[in-house]
Amino acid sequence: MTNIQFISKTVATAAINIQKTVQLLQEDCTIPFISRYRKDTTGNLDEVQIENIAKLQKEYEVVVKRKEAILKAITEQGAMNEGLFAKIDKSYDLQELEDFYLPYKKKKKTKADVARENGLEPLAKIIMAQNNDDVDFISTKYINDNVSNEDAALQGARDIVAEWINENIYVRKQLRRLYERKATITTKVVKTKKDGEAAQKFNQYFDWSEPLTKAPSHRLMAMLRAENEGFIKFKIEVDIDEAYDIIDAVILKGQNKTTPHVQLAIEDSYKRLLNPAISNEALQEAKAKADANSIQVFANNLGQLLLAPPLGEKRILAIDPGFRSGCKVVCLDEKGDLLYNENIYPHAPQNETAMAMKKIKSMVNAYKIDAISIGNGTASRETEFFIKKIAFDKPVQVFIVSEAGASVYSASKIAREEFPDYDVTVRGSVSIGRRLSDPLAELVKIDPKAIGVGQYQHDVDQTKLKEELDSTVIRCVNSVGININTASKHLLSYVSGIGEKLAENIVNYRSENGPFENRKQLKKVPRLGEKAYQQGVAFIRISNAKNPLDNSAVHPEAYSIVEKMAKDLKLTVHDLIANKEKTALIKPENYITPEIGLLTLKDIIKELEKPGLDPRKSAKVFEFDPNVKTIKDVKSGMILPGIVNNITNFGCFVDIGVKESGLVHISQLKAGFVSDVNEVVKLHQHVTVKVTEVDEDRKRIQLTMVI
């Protein structure tokens, strides 16, 4: 099987599209570049499909490498034959390959190995042959210094038979199917730990049972965490008689004097070898699916968070609120650069409210502030009320911004490099302000796991999580495009084809030579070669460039085509851009070249209509209910405004202006007729909810969505 055939089993597109996509990937083309600028080559595959092809290509390479290792290991043992070689050579299933290898795999000394050393393999073969032999009498021939009697001889022979049954590929396949269809997960509480406070959040799993296939990812993750923390024990099992029937159908040949010995070997093989192995496989497979599900939830949330509406290039006053330690205030210019910082103490115990008001008003005027960004942590609501009491000389918008991960950023190497002369409180406040002006540019500096969206992200496969989150960040950054003259080193590193080292070189070049005036200048950056230029240039923007296409998503390789379009319309490129009346006259089929086809040309015309358009919406002011400040103010039946701040498979969490977010269970979304929460709500969506239950002791709020 070729790699293209392997990938075609999963990806629904023509083989030629897969072949050309793999070729582009092998030529070190990035996924954003391929999906945006090589649509005609790939048959218009999107980023998700291309990412899937890239993953499957890696899987194929892993299978091929493992197959080669297995063939080599068996050959070196002198155990290879034509039939076995053909089976292994034909297989592209890792699990099946491991089954073929199992009899030849080096392992610790087993009961069967001991029996073989004691000369009992011929007796095992007689039992396994299941002819009408008097094995009880025959077994007497195998008594020796290490085998004391007939029972010991028969037991040793059965140990060997049990191992053969365990290594039977058909038995293992049939049992796997049984586990896939009918496995049950059952839990029991560890009695010595059930009364602890930490155990109570898992109390629903103290005595729990359900089909493994029906256990949703969040529930399986919860059970696994409960077991890891020692509160419960669980097992994966199927009906034992059904399992025996499956093995009997493969192994038993009829009824004779050897049958009881074969049946004993079957029972031993299942209980001691097969059940532990196959049940563990079933659990690992379920865990892998739950991991994938949780990772996807996290990636979806992260993508929505990164593409949250930006306020844009405005002057912002940002506040990291606090009580005793005061509120840290910073003033930022349109580029997010720090202009000024100060502490104010409007709340208890200092209660310097009047002085704080005077200072805020003075800063707003002195630094021409357009908007105020307040972190949503401790004292957030109190600070919001305080700010709204100030009579500013001009309209100033007030926003509450999530400060999740701000403390992680403030103590990071990136923050120290950006603000070496300021402490963590100033850095954290700057982050809160910059998140309002451009969430994408600021949040890429923080480990996504610290941002606080998703479910069980610390329990999933961390390598796969990082890969998916990195892909999400790259996808978001390149879908928006970045201003090369204002972007941080960290943001630049996610641009297609750039990476960390080239991003640093770009920033250094910018510092030494001033702002980039055109895209061609990118070629002057040290170590930035033709390939990196080709992959990344169209994802950068240069505002006020001499060539307006330098501030668009049109790739320089198509500039000549745009110039020809303009010339044919008797216009300059400047006059063509954003001129819908004229772009509507362009017939893309007239401009097809061997390199640039119809799909790309249609994208170019669409881009000319709205060059460099940011796909994100604009930030909107949101106001919580002014009467609700703490969980004590929340009562059943209340109708409240809120913001969705986390989405999971079991529902969404909504910030209603108190420290504790409320849960809208999936059953409460559109009367429960929904399997994917993302079908109904999005992160940061402004919603209206109704309080159905408040548990102050456990700090839990149950909500339902108001339609």
UniProtKB/TrEMBL annotation:
Domain of life: Bacteria
A Pfam family annotated for this UniProt entry: Tex_N
PROSITE patterns: S1 (PS50126)
GO biological process terms, semicolon-separated: nucleobase-containing compound metabolic process; translation
InterPro entries: HHH_9 (IPR041692), NA-bd_OB-fold (IPR012340), Ribos_protein_bS1-like (IPR050437), RNaseH-like_sf (IPR012337), RuvA_2-like (IPR010994), S1_domain (IPR003029), S1_Tex (IPR044146), Tex-like_central_region (IPR055179)
GO molecular function, one term: mRNA binding
A Gene Ontology cellular-component term: cytoplasm
Protein name: S1 motif domain-containing protein
Domain called S1 motif: residue spans: 637-706
